[in-house]
# Entry
Amino acid sequence: MNAHQRSKTRPAELVHLSRALDSLGLLIFAGEDWISPAALLEFTGEVEEQVRALKGLIGRYVEHSKFVRPGGDPEIEEILKVELADTQKQFGLLAALRRATSDFSAEAEELRKLRSGELKIKTLSASKESRP
# Structure
């Protein structure tokens, strides 16, 4: 059975769940347009938690052979591994983005303090003058 034939015989539950995830994906992608800025960080954290849980559930089914159909299609197995790896890659990129944003926020706060006079920086000439 080729991929086109398989897609026509998929169980309806899987088709509708997949479409529901696609629709939610669009809502998440457009979150900045409909979620208040104050709630955006909380929203992204909660969504990430749920996505990680779903990835874990699917990953457990893929990893445990008792759930995998005997005589399964090796191409499908490879697709499963690639998609799960890509999901993990996205989590890695999200973590890197958060680290960069955190570093940027710290630098922005330091710059704000410097501009307001709350933070003083020793210049090279000032540090030379203080030496004996």
Summary: The CA atoms of residues 90 and 96 lie 10 Å apart.
